[in-house]
Amino acid sequence: MKKDVFLEEARLGARSEAIVRYDEVPHLSTLPPRFRGFSLTDLAHVVMLAETGILRRDRAAKLLGGLLEVYEMGAARFPFDPRTGSYLVQIEHYLEAKLGADIAGRIQTGRSRNDQDASADRIFLRDLLLEVTGDALALLATTLAKARAHAGTVMPGYTHLQHAQPWTFGHYLMRQASILERDVQRLAAAYARTNLGVLGGAANAGTSWPLDRRR
Fold first, then answer.
1. pTM of the model
2. In which domain, by residue range, is 124 found?
3. pLDDT per residue over 17-54, tens digit each?
4. pLDDT per residue as tens digits for the range 137-151
5. Same domain for 73 and 101?
6. Any idea what the CATH number is for the domain that residue 79 is in?
7. Domain check: are 93 and 158 in the same one?
8. 47: exposed, middle or buried (C-beta count within 10 Å: 0-12, 13-18, 19+)?
9. What is the CA 209 to chain-centroid distance, rounded?
10. What is the distance between the alpha carbons of residues 166 and 192, in angstroms, rounded to a whole number?
11. Does 82 lie in the same domain as 160?
């Protein structure tokens, strides 16, 4: 019978229950928000392997079928086993039980746990950036609308806690809108830097497989 080999397991010793309890379980508890990123990374990688001819299309079809099941389950329904390790290993074990080791093992062709983790993190952060940017744009739109409504509402300006030149409340709000606009620009720049593919970097120095990294 095939024996499972885990990343943190000693070559000549049994897997430490202390590692499972104090390392794997706490680590896995932080990962559910990144589950979507892992699933999308797997799906994109298999599609690329099939399109480049690295993976036969019949095998890719089986993998994609299993991966779509994983994606639809989501973190809430996926059968996690804390003894198995990270999401990458968890998903591969799930596919192995459904499709066999020969098919499931091919999902790792041309990639490492390292670049997959980085890809999943980028997808997670990209989603957060889109959410924050959307909220910032909504606040900016509201601020501009209020500024327009109060274009003629006179109020005193302040400097050193004293009344200064008169201006309007609309003018003050336009100042706040300018600050928000710069924040949105920074978020857009952060998104552009985050929305870059890192698959193909593998564990350290790349891979000899002819990957299409732009796909």
1. 0.81
2. 120-194
3. 777 787 777 877 878 889 999 999 999 999 999 999 99
4. 999 999 999 999 999
5. yes
6. 1.10.275
7. no
8. middle
9. 24
10. 41
11. no
